[in-house]
Design a protein that fits this description.
Length: 211
């Protein structure tokens, strides 16, 4: 029974991790939040959207890491902030479902965060000579890595899709998921159609005023 509870909590945490990752990536790393928390998160936007994205776009996406490469990590404060942010969930699960389920929460969040940093670093930086690392060279890990890598490659071409670096549950739920550069996900299509309709309405209103 305890085993089933722990597995259920772990799966729920993976879903939550993916949703938090997607929301953070979309609304903090790609949206300049100058007022939220007194602008404390604005620097994250600057490092990611202003510096990281253009530096690794298209043909520059995979490139050997220069010795002087600026870190692409989310920084040393991200993991403690994540533990603090999720501590009410940890305490709640611990209290109602026991310590084994409770300790599962920070473990899953930590593993997910390590996966993010590991994958993102390895996506952009092959070995210095440009060849893939051994675990990227052979199946099945090479196929799995290619799937992660392709999604993030598309994100660097069009930053309104594939917000998840790790598991794309958020992207699938909210219509941002694609593994094909030519396929526009449904939420992006809907947003573009809405923007087009709005501009057409304004144009019609202006034409009416003129006539
Ligand atoms: Zn990246
Ligand atoms: Zn991004």
């Amino acid at each position: 029974m305890t085993f089933l509870i722990v597995i259920t909590v772990a799966l729920a945490c993976v879903i939550l991790c993916s949703v938090i990752e997607g929301l953070f990536h979309q609304y903090i790393l790609h949206t300049p939040q100058q007022k939220l928390f007194g602008g404390a998160l604005y620097l994250s936007y600057h490092y990611h959207a202003v510096e990281h994205h253009p530096a690794y776009r298209a043909e520059h996406y995979h490139r050997p890491a220069p010795d002087t490469e600026a870190p692409i990590s989310l920084g040393p404060l991200m993991w403690p902030a994540l533990m603090l942010f999720t501590s009410p969930i940890t305490v709640g699960v611990w209290y109602f479902l026991g310590w084994k389920a409770g300790i599962t929460v920070p473990i899953v969040f930590t593993l997910y965060y390590i996966s993010y940093e590991f994958l993102h670093w390895h996506m952009h930086f092959p070995k210095k000579d440009g060849s893939p690392r051994w675990y990227h060279a052979f199946p099945p890990s090479s196929q799995l890595f290619k799937w992660f890598d392709k999604r993030h490659y598309i994100h660097h071409i069009a930053d309104d899709r594939n917000y998840n670096v790790v598991w794309p549950i958020y992207d699938l739920l909210f219509g941002h998921y694609t593994t094909d550069e030519k396929v526009v996900p449904w939420a992006v299509r809907r947003r573009k159609a809405r923007a087009l309709r709005k501009s057409q309405e304004i144009r019609k209103q202006l034409e009416k005023k003129v006539s």
